[in-house]
Structures are given as C-alpha cells and as structure tokens.
Design goal:
Blueprint: H1 19-25, E1 37-41, H2 45-54, E2 61-65, H3 71-85, E3 91-93, E4 99-100, H4 103-118, E5 122-127, E6 138-146, E7 151-158, H5 163-172, E8 175-184, H6 186-196, H7 198-209, E9 212-214, E10 217-219, H8 222-226, H9 233-238, E11 244-249, E12 253-254, H10 259-265, E13 274-276, E14 279-282, E15 288-291, E16 296-299, E17 304-308, E18 313-317, H11 324-333, E19 344-347, E20 350-358, E21 361-368, E22 376-378, E23 382-390, E24 393-397, E25 400-404, E26 409-412, E27 418-421, E28 428-436, E29 445-448
Parallel strand pairs: 1-2, 2-10, 5-11, 13-15, 14-16, 15-17
Antiparallel strand pairs: 3-8, 4-12, 5-8, 6-7, 6-8, 7-11, 9-10, 17-18, 19-20, 20-21, 21-28, 22-29, 23-26, 23-28, 24-25, 24-27
Helix pairs in contact: 3-6, 3-7, 6-7
Length: 454
Amino acid sequence: MSRRLLPKQFLPLVTARTMIQDTVLRLQGFEGARSPIVVSNDEHRFFVAEQMREIGARPEVQILEPVGRNTAPAIAVVALHARSLDPDACLLVLPSDHVIRNVPAFHTAIAAALRLAAGGSLVTFGITPQGPVTGYGYIERGEPISESERSFRVRRFVEKPDLETAQRYVSSGEFFWNSGMFVFQPGRYLEELRLFRPEIAIAAAAALEASKRDLDFLRLDSAAFAACPSDSIDYAVMERTSSSAMVQADIGWSDVGSWTALWDVAEKDANENVAHGDVDLRDTSRCYVRAEHRLVAALGVSDLVIVETDDAVLVAEKSRAQEVKEVVERLDRQARTEHISHSRVYRPWGYYESIDAGERFQVKRIMVNPGQALSLQMHHHRAEHWVVVSGTARVTRGDEVKLLPENESTYIPIGTKHRLENPGKTPLFLIEVQSGGYLGEDDIVRFEDRYKRG
C-alpha cells in the first residue's frame, strides 16, 4: 500500500481520512493550537497541499526539504521559523503517520507537556507499553516532576531491545515506549542543538535564510540543506540534554509500523478478523484482509495478512509482517517498480492510471481536478488521442484552443505543443491512447507549468 511516491501518511489506512489528515484534525478543539507548520519532501508537496485543502486546514507554511536529513534538521528549521513568528510560542512536534485513539487523553497530555516546556524542559510523551514490543525504542523514567500530571525526568533513552530485554523493561514498570512526539520552546531546542550538534544548527539556519517562496511553499536552499548532517532529534538532542522530561500518555497510540500493528488498532469481528473492501471470510480467524480492487476470499486460515492492490498481492504470516521490508529491498535490487508507485500515479493536477500497454501503444485513464491544468508540453516520440469520458476539457493544440465536451475526442500529433485543462467545477475524466516508438514519461518537453516542474 505504501510506495515511495505515495507513503502511508497519505493513505486512509485506519479511518476514512488519511493519516496526515487525522494528525491535523485531532488537534481540533485544543485551546491555543495555531495553524500547523508542515515539513515535507519536495516530491510530496502537492499531496500535502491537496489533503490539507480537503479538510479545510490552511498551514501557516509548508516547508519543502530538497533532500531528507532526518528529524533534527527539519525541526531546527521549524524552530527558527516559529521563533520568528512568536518568540513565546511552543512547538508540538508530531509525525504524520501515527494512530491516537483517545484524543481527549492526548489533549490532556499535551497540556501537561506545555506546562513543563514553559519551564524550559524538552518534553516527550512516553507510552505505557501494552507488551514487550521489540520494534519501539524505550524511555526509562526518572524522578517524578508532578504525580498529578504523571510527568517525570528522563533517566535514559534506549534503543529497540531484543525480546528478553523488552520483557524485562515492561515487567519493571519503569520503561515506556518512545512515541517520537515532542513539546518545547523553539529557543530551548535551538540552544541544545547548538550545544550538542552545532553543525546541524548552522546548516539549518543557512538553508532557511536562503529559502525562497514558491506559490504556497517555502523552499529550503538546496545546497545548504544538502550539506547538513543527517541525524534524528533523539540522537542529536534528547539523549544528550539534561533538560528532558516525559509525560506518561495512555492515549491509544501506535506508529503503525507494520500490518500487524494495523491489525492491533483496528476494529475486529467476532473471530478477531479485520476486513476492508470486498472480502469473504469463512472459518477464518485473527487475520487482516484488505481488498482494494477485487474480491478476496479466505477459507480456513488464521493469523495471516492478505493485502490486494491493483498490481500486487501480499500473503504473510502475521508474525513475519515486518519482513515485507526485505521484499521491498529485493524488488529494488531487481530494478522493479512496484515498490515505487501504484499503477495510479498522482500529479499536482490529478492522477493517471495505466489501463493497457503493448508494442508501440499505451492506454491511460486521466483525471484532472477542477481548475487544474497539465503543463504546455510536447513529445518527440509519441502521438496522443484524447477521448473525454465526463466533464469538459479545454484543449490547446498548437495555436488552436477549444472546449471538448463528453464523448468528443482530439488527436495530438508528434511534436505538437499541447495542454489539457479542466475549466469546470467537477473532475474531468478522459481516456488517453498513446502511440509511438517510445512511450516513457521522460519524453516531455515543458514550455509552461504552473507547478514549476522541470
């Protein structure tokens, strides 16, 4: 389900909304919460913008990383930006792919963390462990700060343990799962970062200072940010600072790091199955079954993960669900593409999906969002035939511009400048038939593009 071009943050895996949408919406009703600052990879900028638009959220700014450098530099950039807006503000740092089922308890924990952060602490949330999980890091709590708010000093952070160590941690009652969520004053984080990793602080400041506005985005300077060392906030600051604190949070949290974790947090039937889509289960128990495009039937099986998409099927024992990462690595070594994108490929203007392909031809279904447009472009090696299925298209072909209603078509010869636009208020769907000696996506010469792609 999660591909390089469409990671799990942008998928509706748990609720009808995507995980990043749930991350923003669960702060509704929390007093003092301001518009979010979103940090994303440049490649995912339009996913974020569109998903925020769908839920009526308008970020204060969407900061674009030219390359990934882990969480410490990303948070440093946000801290610098937030401090410039309001020196007295606090930052609540949230990964966009977590599940939190008890939102009122989460709000209570945030309020407690804010009180600690106001006194200069760098606060994390420790999750009461539900068992000896080896896939999480752990926090050992120290002296209590406030018994009523279940807040503590942090004695130490520890890496993901083996099973025996995890069992010992859980039995002691002194260890908690490391949630990867934080609250602190921007200035305090920057002080500690300058103390322990000054080179990250310097590079992040340089990248922000040389950043440029682009539409609704803030692009960090590529050279300065690429030169920044890569490190997590845990390694760079939290494991070194003497000002760390922890709020114990029983909030129904999971980072959904595997299909088994998703089974854990989902609603189950009487036989402890979780089913999504067109699924038929008979004499089946404790399974996670997800059908995206067709019927999936399971008969007489137990403890399996079965996931069907339009281009791949996964069948795995639940106990081995983490090993799907090894499958992805093998696909990468074999130069396959299933782990990179689905057959439906999203673009800033909408999406396209492949229907059929063969020697010298390819058929695609294209959806263009209302008011959006493809670039003015030309192809050296292929011609295109467009048929409007629903909606109205505005078509530029050479010097000609015309409206194309449903059930009408047009032909774009090789080497002809052309553009497709949706001037309407409903999505535009059409079928595109490509023909030619080379049909790769890199056969595009762009002359104008509102999304400023190369």
